[in-house]
């Protein structure tokens, strides 16, 4: 069928009623959002954002309602989609923006693609990777992996991807989303080493829409975390330590889930795997820790300072 591209869509969407199919690759995937309220009777109040791209650039795509439980788990980073019967609307201005791995990629931020159950009913097709043709000019997924030795020089809020061997994982803890509300964030702390520094990555891992990963993080697993944000104490407290926290687009992968993920081609990932082959497993196991309370960042030395 006759295809269009994202660049052409942005220029012509206001004058079009029916849109030609799109062929795109998923570059980023947000956590699933539940927006149900007790006083509203919305059927399946779910929403998920994706950043999709073709040869012309990148645009946001939003999946609505019952399409989320049907498609969310199938739509992985790197998946190629053929989209038909979608709608186009002005983009939501307060949405989080992931940092693209390719800094040269053009971003179309004024509009977004909307996939709905009805009016019209979106048609979504997943294209297997072996059927993707070079002439489609779909961009590859690119990452911003850093090593632990590079972390100390990075600014606050810098976006990056990391891989490491887990040496500590804390218990799951809860924090209120807002004061005096009944909604909580679920998170846990973890340490991971990559052989480039004496210090581990300190990771604040909030529960994403991957409960199977979040619950199974344990020492000696190879942990990949994407779209992490650097957190520094900007008050220049000398006792504080730099750490990484998840963002809305973070994805977490552990041993057993790495096969066929796009990041396996990354040079720093290959270097890490090479380094792990030199480790003595029993020695690392002796140093591994799991569970317990992890007070971080460290509280001040005296109560008056606190």
Automatic annotation (TrEMBL):
UniProt cross-references to Pfam families, sorted A to Z: RADX
InterPro entries attached to this UniProt entry: NA-bd_OB-fold, RADX
A GO term, aspect molecular function: single-stranded DNA binding
Name the UniProt record assigns to this protein: RADX protein
Upper lineage: Eukaryota, Metazoa, Chordata, Craniata, Vertebrata
């Amino acid at each position: 069928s006759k295809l269009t591209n994202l660049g052409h869509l942005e220029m012509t969407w206001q004058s079009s009623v029916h849109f030609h199919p799109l062929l795109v690759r998923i570059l980023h995937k947000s956590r699933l959002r539940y927006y149900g309220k007790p006083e509203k009777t919305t059927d399946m109040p779910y929403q998920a954002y994706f950043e999709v791209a073709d040869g012309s650039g990148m645009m946001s795509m939003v999946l609505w309602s019952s399409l989320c439980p049907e498609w969310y788990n199938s739509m992985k980073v790197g998946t190629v989609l053929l989209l038909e019967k979608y709608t186009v609307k002005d983009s939501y201005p307060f949405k989080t923006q992931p940092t693209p791995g390719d800094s040269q990629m053009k971003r179309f931020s004024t509009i977004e693609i909307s996939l709905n159950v009805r009016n019209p009913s979106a048609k979504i097709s997943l294209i297997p990777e072996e059927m993707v043709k070079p002439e489609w000019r779909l961009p590859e997924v690119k990452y911003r992996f850093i090593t632990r030795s590079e972390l100390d020089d990075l600014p606050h809020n810098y976006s990056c991807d990391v891989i490491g061997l887990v040496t500590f994982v804390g218990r799951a803890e809860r924090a209120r989303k807002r004061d005096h509300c009944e909604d909580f964030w679920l998170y846990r702390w973890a340490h991971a080493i990559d052989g480039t520094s004496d210090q581990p990555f300190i990771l604040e891992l909030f529960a994403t829409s991957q409960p199977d990963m979040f619950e199974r993080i344990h020492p000696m697993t190879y942990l990949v975390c994407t779209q992490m944000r650097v957190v520094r104490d900007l008050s220049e407290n000398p006792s504080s330590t730099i750490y990484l926290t998840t963002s809305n687009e973070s994805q977490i992968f552990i041993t057993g889930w790495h096969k066929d993920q796009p990041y396996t081609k990354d040079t720093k990932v290959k270097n890490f795997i090479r380094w792990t082959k030199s480790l003595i497993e029993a020695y690392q196991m002796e140093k591994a820790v799991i569970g317990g309370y992890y007070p971080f960042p460290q509280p001040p030395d005296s109560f008056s300072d606190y």
